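Methods — Computational structure assignment.
A single polypeptide chain was analysed. Its primary sequence is given first, followed by the predicted tertiary structure written as structure tokens.
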Amino acid sequence: MATAAAPALDPTRLNEFIGKALNDMGAAMSAALVVIGDRLGLYKALHLHGPLTSAELAERTGTHERYVREWLANQAAGGYLTYDPTSARYTLPPEQAFMLADESSPLFVHGLFQVIQSAMIDEPRVTEAFRTGRGVGWHEHDHRLFEGTERFFRPGYNAHLVSEWLPALEAVMAKLEAGATVADVGCGLGASTILMAQAFPRSRFFGFDYHGPSIELARERARAAGVAERVTFDVTPAKSFPGKNYDLVAFFDCLHDMGDPVGAGRRVLESLAADGTWLIVEPFANDRVEQNFNPVGRLFYAASTMICTPASLSQEVGLGLGAQAGERRIAAVIREAGFTRFRRATETPFNLVFEARP
């Protein structure tokens, strides 16, 4: 049986893709080293005490020089550090330090590297899900996902939630300042809930998540933050969270993970006060798939394949919105849930912030 001839290879395009693949392989292998640098405080030591030789960094961090020497060379080869061959010292430039050594930075990235680590560990489970079509629940993932997700999102919440997102909503700030009742659904480890409680001491906050271990950590963190008297965390699914007459219900980066986001939206509608507001924060995405073929879209589609879509498919209905659903599909969900008013309140390069009202 005759077979079609293989298409001729374009040497220029082939070389370009070889370079791209090499970059990806180097980045993938180096991701583990970024996690090591975070865990051992190597970036922070370079930020506080650099420039340093491998021996000086090892002494500062209580680590073995031979390992540190190899780690530093990898980091310099990848552009995370700079190297002075005259002094054999490595420097963490201020721009890199802003992302790698400053936990208060809105661009602090180590949480995402923990998420990447968990995705690699969970790959066999997701591979099997490709074959069966079954889901992989949030609770079934490696434990690094939970802390990594919170560490990844928390800097953005710190930078935008109180100063930009909440003020972009109609009449919400005045309610929060006077004393509102707020539900944070899908709260995870409670970063967003606690941040709002700290900002609005007259308001009462209720955080809900179906993942029990995350709720336990959220309670511990509320106590440590001194807001436990005004924050309650409970284990419950999004479609049946308790309470009514909420002034604000917030869904931070979780609607697309839900198997039945329409059902969750209907529960929000039942729970809101007559003039209440539903705040929905979702990953930034354009409506057309090809409009998301960029570095941010690539990252979010990867997370969606490994985490978000499997989570949705593991639940009833299993709508599978995905992390790149876009405004049009989110709007359709909100309107099907019974809301009559929906708008994009604001955005960041990584977030779409929506407001829905009855």
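Note: Residues 24-101 form a domain with the Arc Repressor Mutant, subunit A fold (CATH 1.10.10.10).
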